[in-house]
Amino acid sequence: MDAVDSIVQQWRTVRTDLDVSPIEVIGRVSRLSRLVDRRLAVNFARHGIEAWMYDVLATLRRSGEPYELTAGNLVRQTMVTTGAITNRIDRLEARGLVERARAGDRRKVIVRLTSAGFDKVEEVVPGHLDVERALLSALSARQQRELASLLRRTLTSLGD
After folding, report:
1. Dihedral of the CA atoms 42, 46, 48, 50 (nearest 10)?
2. What distance in Å separates the CA atoms of residue 87 and residue 93, rounded to the nearest whole number?
3. CA distance 87 to 85
4. How far apart, in whole angstroms, are the C-alpha atoms of residue 28 and residue 21?
5. For residue 3, which phi and psi values (nearest 5 degrees)?
6. Is the omega angle on the peptide bond into residue 66 within 30 degrees of 0, that is, cis?
7. pLDDT digit string (tens) for 56-72?
8. Residue 115 CB partners (closer than 8 Å, separation 6+)
9. Quick one: the chain helix, strand, coil %, rounded to 5?
10. Sign of the CA dihedral 81, 148, 118, 34?
11. What is the largest CA-CA distance in the chain?
12. Contact 26, 32 (CB under 8 A)
């Protein structure tokens, strides 16, 4: 039994007319999201960064050389607003982890990792993956693949 089982049982007791089975999945996904975020934050803090910083740095790093993207591509890949990405770029630029460049007609902003930004993401990513691996350790490799497939299907059905 977990906390979600208790919630479901309470609803089934007080509202016998409702099918509360979606709570068994959505409630667990929601709780997992919060627990995962907390565990990842501990690793990020060890490296002096926050989750949003890692998100931008890792997005640039995995884009491949020259480790740069337009601000618009960063918005799409990090799933935040234009205002949020501008703020994030400003803060990362102040720390010397990214730099801006103008391209083409000068309206397009290119964001690239600095050498310090590259070094930071390279320092963080192995521990990040170790934390993620530990979070999934209760599942076999086959179960992890099945869960990944089911989550992918759910996300794509929602337009992601």
Report:
1. -20
2. 10
3. 5
4. 11
5. -60, -35
6. yes
7. 999 999 999 999 999 98
8. none
9. 70, 10, 25
10. positive
11. 64
12. no
In whole angstroms, give the CA distance from residue 67 to residue 26.
Answer: 36
DSSP letter (8 states) at residue 117: H
Burial of 28 (0-12, 13-18, 19+ CB in 10 A): middle
Say whether pTM exceeds 0.85.
Answer: yes
Q: How does pLDDT run across 64-98, given as a tens digit for each residue?
A: 999 999 998 999 998 888 899 999 999 999 999 99
What is the rounded CA–CA span in Å between residue 82 and residue 72? 8
Sequence-distant contacts of 7-11: CB under 8 A, at least 24 apart: none
Q: What is the distance of C-alpha 18 from the center of its chain? A: 33
Do residues 47 and 124 touch, judged by C-beta distance below 8 A?
A: yes
